[in-house]
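User: Show me a protein chain along with its predicted structure.
Assistant: Here is one chain, sequence first, then structure tokens.
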Amino acid sequence: LREEIARAGKPVEVVNIQEIGSTRRAIAHGRKIVKEMTEQAARQDRKPFDVSRLVVGVKCGGSDTTSGIAANPAIGVMSDMLVDAGAAVVMIEPIEAVGAEEPLAARAVNEQVRQEVLNWVGNEEKRWTVPGASVDFMCTGNIEGGLTTLEEKSLGAIHKSGHRPIKGVLKNREDYLETVPPGGGFYLQEGIHVELHAMTHMAAAGVHIIVFATGRGGSFGHAICPLVKVTGNPETWAKMSEDMDVNASTIMEGKESIDSVGQRIFDEVLAVASGKITIGEQLGFYNFAVWKVDPRLEALLGLK
């Protein structure tokens, strides 16, 4: 792994407890490495760059009825604006497209990508319907938030993808994770729907900033990517505005259009890219997790 990262021209170090000799010494060595890397990064000159250099991820969690009506459509507007400006946008969580795969597949740039999109959803559905397993596609929070069916949830979730053509599905396998190609555009990514794991996968693919829609609310941040949190629920904003970055509940209240909120989210992303500190960063609440693909399950289900 170290050699792979080094080939990309990025600074990389490995801390091995067994080689160093003890946990305490390994921690001390790791702190020394981080301090040196931080100092090196601080010496770099900040330079302007075009929006087209950005790679932004979109994700939702704790969804309710307002997610599909307000927050996700507004994020979709932002997504289209970024793609139109030459940037790249990535959406993960194929399980949240079950029942909505056809509208997504219709946006594929060619027949090969169309089939990739259908497989993206179909393969994930197989993982969730292993014979003998008891699995719910919708969590208690979704139901308490007013969502009634999986299709309703999925059709609301895909709104955050916008309307631009889908250029491909980024692979995320046991020993290989595909990065976002240069040139901008909208991409899907294989991966788990669980927030922290999904965000790590997107970051590993090259995403710089993640825009996260939540109807029920969320106080966490991510250790790698700045997280811009958006809620379309007026009650959530009233209770948790100190944990949110963008208020999209003005759509539900009839005070603002979807396009207007989408513009505000776009502006917020540019501000964060320019150095603005997100709410999660201000709170210092960082989480991190990695989801490892199980090759045994993939082989059992005949997935490729």
